[in-house]
Amino acid sequence: MRQTREFANPPVVLGYATIAGPKEGEGPLATYFDKIINNLYYYEDTWEKAEQKMFLEVVEMALQKASVKKEEVDFFLAGDLLNQIISANFVAKSLGIPFFGLYNACATFYEGLILGAMLIAGGFAKKVLVGVSSHYATVERQYRNPTEQGVQKTPTSQWTVTGAAAVVLGEGEGKIKIPRVTVGKALDYGMFDPSDMGGAMAPAAFDTLLAHFKETGLSYDYYDLMATGDLARFGWQILVKLLQERNINFGQRLTDCGIMIYRPDQQVNAGGSGTACSALVTAGYVFNELSQGKIHKFLGIGTGALLSQVTSQQGMSIPVIAHAVSFECY
Amino acid sequence: MRQTREFANPPVVLGYATIAGPKEGEGPLATYFDKIINNLYYYEDTWEKAEQKMFLEVVEMALQKASVKKEEVDFFLAGDLLNQIISANFVAKSLGIPFFGLYNACATFYEGLILGAMLIAGGFAKKVLVGVSSHYATVERQYRNPTEQGVQKTPTSQWTVTGAAAVVLGEGEGKIKIPRVTVGKALDYGMFDPSDMGGAMAPAAFDTLLAHFKETGLSYDYYDLMATGDLARFGWQILVKLLQERNINFGQRLTDCGIMIYRPDQQVNAGGSGTACSALVTAGYVFNELSQGKIHKFLGIGTGALLSQVTSQQGMSIPVIAHAVSFECY
Predict the structure, then answer these.
(1) Is B141 an 8 Å CB contact of chain A?
(2) A3 to chain B nearest CA, in Å?
(3) Which residues 87-126 in chain A show a CB within 8 A of chain B?
(4) Has this prediction a pTM greater than 0.90?
(5) Looking at the DSSP assignment, which residues form a beta bridge with residue A297?
(6) Interchain proximity B98–A71, CB inside 8 Å
(7) DSSP conformational letter for A186
(8) Which of A130, B2, B21, B279 is geometrically suited to a Cys-Cys bond with B165, CB 3.0 to 4.6 A?
(9) Exposure of B166 by Cβ count < 10 A (0-12 exposed, 13-18 middle, 19+ buried)?
(10) How many CA atoms lie within 13 A of A103 on its CB side?
(11) InterPro entries from the entry (chains A, B) (predicted)?
C-alpha cells in the first residue's frame, strides 16, 4: 500500500494564525506567533475553557487573515489532546461549520492537513479549516498528575505546548502549496515508558520519512528544511541515529519542532510536545519563512503517541504514528 | 455552506462484518450479526482488551468477507468511545494500514463512512476500511461510575451497545452503493443532562435530516427506511415531534437503531447507545435487508453527543452532531 499521494492541483494555504502560551511566548520563536497569552487561565475560570477560547480565537484570526467568511468554509477538521476532543467540539459548535473530529494525538494537526488537502483536491470542498490546540495545564492534569502536586519529571519527559493554530486550505492560487502528503501507519516498537514519548515516536518518524522519499523518488537533499513534530532532544537523536544506520544524513536540514519552540534553559526537560507543538512551529515559524522566501521546500512530519492512561496502567506498549506533509512556496 | 455531497461514481460496500455482545445477542437483531460473544471479558483480563480483540476480529472478518487483503487497503478510518480512541489505535497498529483516527462520539461510524467515501470518490483510495467499537463496561466505568457500584439509572439513560463493526468500501461494482452523504454541524441546544443524550441529540438529527432533503431535493417518501443512530425512545419521540411541527411525517419509515437493537423488556432504560449501536444495526440488519432486496433505499443518520465528563463537571452544555449516509441497492 502506497502511503504517499501527490496532488496534480496542489491545495494551497489561504490563511493561518497562531496563538501561543506564556512559556512559548518567552521562547525563541515568540516573534512568529500572532498572539501570546500571558496567563494559562486567559481570563477564564478553568484551563479547559481557556484552551477553547484560545482555539476559537485562532480560528477566527485565520479566517480573517485569509479573508474567508466562515459561511464559505465547507468543512472544519479539528482535534486536540483532551478526552473526547472537547476543545475542538466546543469550537465546532461555536462555528457551525460541518465538522469532522480527529484524533491522532500530537499528529492531529498533520492528520487534518492531509484529510483537508484530499477533500479539496478530490473536489469535495473549496475551502477547509484545520485547527488544533493543546494546553500545558489541561494535559498535565488529565494525563499525569494534579498540577498542584508539582511532581518531578524525568529528563526524557516533555513539556506540553500551550497554544492553538488554524489553517485555511483552498484551491487555486496561493503562495504556499501542498504538493504531496504521506499518511502514517500506526506502529509499535514495544516502548512502554509514557515519560519518553519522543523515544517511542522516533521510529514512526523514521518509517514515514523513508516511505516519503522512497515513494516520491525525491533526493534526500530535496527539502530545504524538515521538522518532526515533537520528538524533542532524545527522540530526535534516536531518529538521527536510525537515519545514519541507513547512511542518510540530513545534517542541519532536519530538526524538530519540540526542540525549536523552547530555549534549552527554559526548564522543559527534553523539549516541547503536544498537538500545538508542530502546529505552532509550522503555522508560525515555517509558513513565515516560506512566505518570505527564506526557504522554499519544507517537509513536516507530525508525530503522535497513541497511548492512554488506561493502556499504560494495563501494561500495554505505546503505538505511534507519523504523518508527513510538504509545503512549497516559490 | 452545502452539507450534502452526491457522488457521480458512488463508492460501494465490498464487505462488512459485525460482532455483538451478550445482551445484543439476546436482542431482536441477533440473527443478523456475524458473531456473538457470550462474555464481556471475551477471554481477556480486562474489558478494554476484550473491546480491542473484538474490534480487530471484526476487521479481519470484514476483509475476509470482502475477499480483500489488508495490504490492498489504502486507509483505515476508525474510532471508538474510549479516551484517546485506544481501541482503534491498537487495532490500527495490529493492521499496519495507513491510519486516520476519528472522533465524533456515537456518530464516528458515519463520520468514517463519509470520509472513506470521499477519499474513494476523490481518487485517493481504491479501498478503505472503516471500523468502530464500543463496550458497555469500558464506557460505563470511563464515563459514569465504577461498574461494581451498580448505580441506579434514570429512565432517559441509555445502555451502551457492546459490539464492533467494520466495512470495506471500494470503487466500481458492488451491490450496496453510497450515492450521497450529508455532513453534520456541531450544534448546541442548551441541553445539560448527560443522562439524556437522546434528547440532546434529537435536534441534531432533525437539522441534518432537513438539510439532506432540502439540498438533495428528494421527496420525503424517497427512502424505504431511515434510522437515526442512538436517540433511543425519548430522543426519537422528540425528533418525531420536531418533524411533525414542520408537517413532516415519516411514519413507520423512520426508526432508531437504539430502539431496534434491544427488546423493551431487556432493561436498557430508553434504549441503546454507543458507537457500535448504529454500526451494528447498519452493517448487520440494514445491509442484510438491502442485499436481500427487502429494502432498496436506506438513509442512516449517525448521532453523537460531543461532551466529556470534564465539560459536564464544569457546567457546560452538550454539543451534538448528526451525519447522514444513504445506502442503495437494486
Answers:
(1) no
(2) 7
(3) 89-90, 92-93, 95-105, 108, 111, 114-115, 118-119, 121-124
(4) yes
(5) A328
(6) no
(7) P
(8) B279
(9) buried
(10) 32
(11) SpoVAD, SpoVAD_sf, Thiolase-like
Region A71-88: mean pLDDT is 98
B window 209-268, beta carbon within 8 A of A: none
Break chain A into its structural domains and give their ranges. Answer: 4-170, 176-329
B183-220 pLDDT tens trace? 999 999 999 998 999 999 999 999 999 999 999 999 99
Residue of A89, A197, A320 best to disrupt the B interface, most CBs of B under 10 A? A89
Per-residue cell: A46: 478553568
Give A110-151 pLDDT, tens digit per residue. Answer: 999 999 999 999 999 999 999 999 999 999 999 988 888 888
CA distance A29 to A35: 12
To which residue does cell 447507545 refer? B273
The answer, for A85 touching chain B at a CB cutoff of 8 Å, is yes
- Most B CBs within 10 Å, among A311, A312, A314, to test the B interface: A311
Nearest residue on chain B to A71, judged by CA atoms?
B1
Output the nine-digit C-alpha cell for A92.
465546532
Q: Which residues of B touch A118 (CB under 8 A)?
A: 118-119, 122, 124
Helix A136-143, helix A47-66: angle, nearest 10: 140
The tens digit of pLDDT for each residue in B77-112 reads 999 999 999 999 999 999 999 999 999 999 999 999
Helix (H) or strand (E) holding A317: none
Task: Encode A98-128: b = buried (16+ Cβ within 10 Å), e = exposed.
Answer: bbbbbbbbbbbbbbbbbbbbbbbbbebbbbb
B125 vs chain A: nearest CA distance in angstroms? Answer: 10
The answer to whether B74 and B106 are in contact (CB under 8 A) is no
A51 at the B interface (CB within 8 A)? no
Cell of A75: 468543512
**Residues of A with CB below 8 A from B124's CB?**
5, 118, 121-122
Report A:2-31 residues touching B (Cβ under 8 A). Answer: 2-3, 5
Task: Give the gap in angstroms from C-alpha B298 to the nearest C-alpha of chain A.
Answer: 22
The reported pLDDT for the residue numbered B116 is 98
CA distance B296 to B280: 19
Here the cell at position A172 is 487555486
Collect all residues with Cβ–Cβ distance below 8 Å to B216 and sequence separation of at least 6: B4, B6, B180
C-alpha cell read off for B165:
463493526
For A176-329, CATH gives: 3.40.47.40
- Cβ contact (<8 Å) for A124 and B124? no
Residues B136-164: pLDDT tens digits?
A: 999 999 998 888 888 888 999 999 999 99
Any alpha helices (H) in B106-153, and if so which ranges? Answer: 108-121, 136-143
Q: Which of A164, A193, A219 is closest to A50 using CA atoms?
A: A164
Q: Where are the alpha helices (DSSP H) in A67-133?
A: 86-95, 108-121
Closest by CA position to A139, among listed A47, A220, A56, A215: A47
Pairing type for strands B35-36 and B225-228 reads unpaired
